[in-house]
Every structure is written in structure tokens, then in C-alpha cells.
Design a protein that fits this description.
158 residues; globular
């Protein structure tokens, strides 16, 4: 799907967010594919209102929070769920799972993205945060799967 086709499928609130935060356009665009691919790998499919949907929302929002920060990621996921055609029970499920993911991803934003300011001091002292160089997508995925397995994520359909 081309960029224009993707743009035309965004909610008005999503378009407004991207218009005022263009620095996140590529992150947002790529995050969808990353989340769909990871959900397929972990859950076997991408469903609706089931455990795979809960996992996908958690993982997607965790990557956004890691890459954009909690506040901006929250604004975008809220814009994403703002479609009036989105049934209230689905919106509640998705927002709950997004909030869990935002919380998970925010730990990486603080420790990883902001650590870039301190790479030289950390490397000199030999105290580089090991998460700085880790595959945080895999860690975010594992943390969202754990949240799902522990009942922290909501589902409508089993």
C-alpha cells in the first residue's frame, strides 16, 4: 500500500497529529508493519478483539512510546482510536492495551533514547546500559506477551 493510500485511511485526528509532529511520520508508518509482523510471529495470526489483537496493540504502542516518548505516543494512539465508527467496547479494549504498551515502551525511551546523550561518559566508565545495544523489539514483544499471559491485557473474544 502506497503512502497516499495509507494517509487516506488515517482518522482526522491522526492526520492532525502527523501534521503537527512530522518528525514522527516515518516512525508511525513503520510501526504498523512491525506490529503486524511481530503479532503474526508470536500469535500466529492478526485477529480482531482476541488475544492477538490485544498483543498487537500492546506491542505497537510500546514501540511508539519507546521511539516517540510516552506523551506523544499517547496522543497518537488516542487519535488512532478516535474514529466514531470504532465500537465503544473495542475502543475501550484497544485503549487499555495501548496504555499497557505505552507504559512498557516508556522504560526504553528513558533508558535507551535519552542514554544517547550519555554514550561517551557511559562508555568511558564501562557502564553502558546493556539495553542500549539490545534488540528492544524482542524485549518489548516478550514484555507484551507476558502482560497477555498474566491477564494484564483485555480481550473481548477468547
Amino acid at each position: 500500500m502506497g503512502v497516499y493510500d495509507q494517509w487516506s485511511k488515517l482518522t482526522p485526528a491522526e492526520k492532525a497529529f502527523i501534521a503537527t509532529h512530522p518528525q514522527y511520520a516515518v516512525i508511525i508508518r513503520n510501526s504498523k508493519d512491525i506490529a503486524y509482523n511481530e503479532t503474526k510471529a508470536v500469535m500466529g495470526h492478526n485477529g480482531l478483539n482476541d488475544k492477538s489483537d490485544a498483543f498487537r496493540h500492546c506491542f505497537w504502542s510500546s514501540t511508539l512510546s519507546r521511539d516517540m516518548g510516552y506523551a506523544d505516543a499517547y496522543l497518537f494512539v488516542s487519535a488512532h482510536e478516535s474514529d466514531p465508527a470504532n465500537p465503544p467496547d473495542q475502543k475501550a479494549m484497544d485503549m487499555h492495551n495501548n496504555l499497557v504498551g505505552l507504559s512498557i515502551g516508556s522504560t526504553f525511551f528513558t533508558e535507551v533514547n535519552h542514554a544517547a546523550d550519555n554514550i561517551v561518559p557511559f562508555s568511558i566508565t564501562g557502564m553502558i546500559n546493556s539495553r542500549l545495544w539490545s534488540n528492544s523489539n524482542a524485549e518489548l514483544s516478550a514484555m507484551c506477551k507476558e502482560a497477555l499471559d498474566n491477564g494484564r491485557l483485555k480481550v473481548i473474544a477468547p
